[in-house]
C-alpha cells in the first residue's frame, strides 16, 4: 500500500478510523513506573491478558469452591465437556473443521504425540525434513524421535536451508531436496510461520509436494495461529500443532492446539498413545477393559484437562470469535505495512527487513536486521518502554498485534529507533 504517510497525525488518524480500535481497551497493557503504557511488540512471544480472562477463570474457581466434583456436570460450563466449548472457535481461527481440532497438552508434547502417529519410519524411509532455522524445541523434538527409533539424529535430519547470503527459504530448493531424497523422507515438519524470519509458508504447496513424494507432512503453527489465515483443512497437512499463549493471548504456558486432518478422523489402525480421554465419551466412565477409540482429533487426548487454563483460552477465543480472522488480518496487513513503510525511511544502509515484503507471505511480525548493532540497542529500546525481542547477533523482532497495538505504537517505536540509531 502506497498511501501511507509520515507524521504522528497520520498514525492518530488511522487509529481513529480503525474498526478494531475498541479492542485495545479490552487488554491489560503493562505500564512503566511513570504510568505510561509500554509499547508492547512481543505478542509473538507472550500475548497480553484480555481483561475478561479474570472473570472466566474466577467462574471456574467459584464453581469448584461451591460444587467440588459435581462441577463436572453442574458447573455453569460443565467441566466434563469444557474442551468442546473451545473447539468450534479454535477450528475457525485455524481454518479447520471441528472434528479436526482439539485443545490439549502443551505444544512440544503435542508435536511428540503427533509424531507417534505420523512419523512411521521404515528401513528405507526414516528421515525427517525440517527448516534449518526451526524453533529449537521443534528441532530437539524431531532429533529425539529419530534417536527413539534407533536412528542417528544427524544422518536422519535433512535441513531446508536458505541460499547463501539469503534468509528466506526458496520452494525450488525444497523441490530439489525432495527430488533427491523424497523416497527417504518419512516426515516433513515445518514451522508454518518461521519464528525467526516471520516467513509464512505456503502450507498447501508444501503438503502437496510432500505427499507427492509419499511423505507425511505436519506444521508447527505456533507463530501462525491467531496471526494469519492458516486454512489448515485446505492445506491438506496430516497434522498441525500450535500454542495458545502467543497470538492467542491465553496466558503463560497455557494449553496447546492440535489439528489432525479429517481423512485420518476415523482410522482405527493409526498408531497412537492413548488414555481414558481418547475413549468413547458414552462409555468412558464404565471403566471397562476394552478400549473404544474416539473419532477425530479428540481421540488423541489422554487426560482430563486443566479447566483453569481452558477458561483463559475460552476468554480469548470468545474475543477472536467476535472479531473474526478476516477483520483481524485486514487490520494486521495495514498495520504491518505501515510499520514496514516507516522502517524503510530509515534507509537500507541502516536496516534490512528480513521478513518477506509480500503481505501474503508474512503475518504481523517484522524481523529487522540492524547494521552494526549489538544488544545495547535492544536495551535502550526496553529502557524507553518498547518491548521487543532481540536475537543475536543483530536482529530485532517486533510484532504489532492487531487486537491491541495501535498505529501510534508503531509510529513511536520507529521514531525511538531512529533517534537511538542517530545518537
Ligand atoms: C513458542 C514455540 C515453541 C514452544 O514450545 P512449548 O512446548 O510451548 O514450550 C515451540 N515451537 C515453536 C515453533 C514455537 O514458536
CATH architecture level-2 label of the largest domain: 3-Layer(aba) Sandwich
Structural class, by secondary structure, is alpha/beta
Share in helix: 25-40%
Q: In angstroms, what is the radius of gyration?
A: 22 Å
* Count of domain modules: 2
Query: Going by CATH, what is the homologous superfamily of the largest domain?
Result: Type I PLP-dependent aspartate aminotransferase-like (Major domain)
CATH topology of the largest domain: Aspartate Aminotransferase, domain 2
Uncertain stretches of 5 or more adjacent residues: none
Heteromolecules bound: pyridoxal-5'-phosphate
Cα-to-Cα separation, first versus last residue: 31 Å
Describe the protein in words:
It is a single chain. This protein has 423 residues and is an alpha/beta fold. It folds into two domains: 8-51 and 324-421, Aspartate Aminotransferase, domain 1, CATH 3.90.1150; 82-321, Type I PLP-dependent aspartate aminotransferase-like (Major domain) (Aspartate Aminotransferase, domain 2). The protein contains 13 helices and 15 strands. A seven-stranded mixed β-sheet has the order 4-10-9-8-7-5-6, sandwiched between helices. Strands 11-12-15-14 form a four-stranded antiparallel β-sheet, covered by helices on one side. Helix 8 (203-212) links the parallel strand 7 (185-191) and strand 8. Helix 4 (84-94) packs across helix 10 and helix 11 (325-344) packs parallel to helix 13 (407-422). The longest helix has 20 residues, at 325-344. 42% of the residues are buried. The model has no long low-confidence stretch (mean pLDDT 96). It binds pyridoxal-5'-phosphate (PLP). The site of pyridoxal-5'-phosphate has 12 residues, from helix 5 and helix 6.
